[in-house]
Write a structure and sequence with these properties.
Elements: H1 2-19, E1 21-36, E2 39-46, E3 54-74, E4 83-96, E5 102-106, E6 109-111, E7 115-117, E8 122-138, H2 143-147, E9 153-167, E10 174-176, E11 182-198, H3 200-220
Antiparallel strand pairs: 1-11, 2-9, 3-8, 3-10, 3-11, 4-5, 4-6, 4-7, 4-9
Amino acid sequence: MFRRIAVAVLVATWVLASTLVSANVVTYTRTTGPTADDWATTFTIPKFDPALGTLDQVVIGLTGGNSGSVTVYNRYGPEPYGASCYVNFTDTILLSRPDTTTLVTFSPLETTAYQYVGGWSFYTFSNLSATGSGGYSSPPPSSDLALFTGTNNIMLPISSTQHVSPGGDDAWRFCFAPLPPYISSYADLTVQYNYTVPEPATMALLGLGGLGLLRRKRGKA
């Protein structure tokens, strides 16, 4: 009888102790840019140190944007060969795992209003800008918990690729001139590790309480 009680008390103590943990957060931030034209670089982030506790979730936040100006040229002229066009002004920001599989991607976009451009003439769309953001959390997949755990760093490739084009029914009349579009873009990264740690003081008290209960039962027996 005493053995059954002892086992029951120890199991109850273990179950209760396993629920008494503290939730903790470690956060790292990185930024790059603004950088002109297409670019690629790497964010270096410390992995989660398993000595701190158990990693439960990796949360990634990525924000970014672009700014710049675009000059178009109407290749047909002279007048009356003027035409109107607009410009789609964007870039694709991509954050990847070390194996180049995608973590977060988004494309900040600005679409300008139509603008009339005379034959054989230039027009500059200036003060263009756009912002965007994206996020990711794991698990799933659970493999990311292992990927982000260790005592060293994880290298996360990030890149920005320009996508600028004239639009409208007469877009075929236009080209970018006298220089290619000038775009400068940036990215800000946040990596958050959510983890739990058993409360050692609470577990010790539970263990002592369980032993005390066993002693009382044994004394009565």
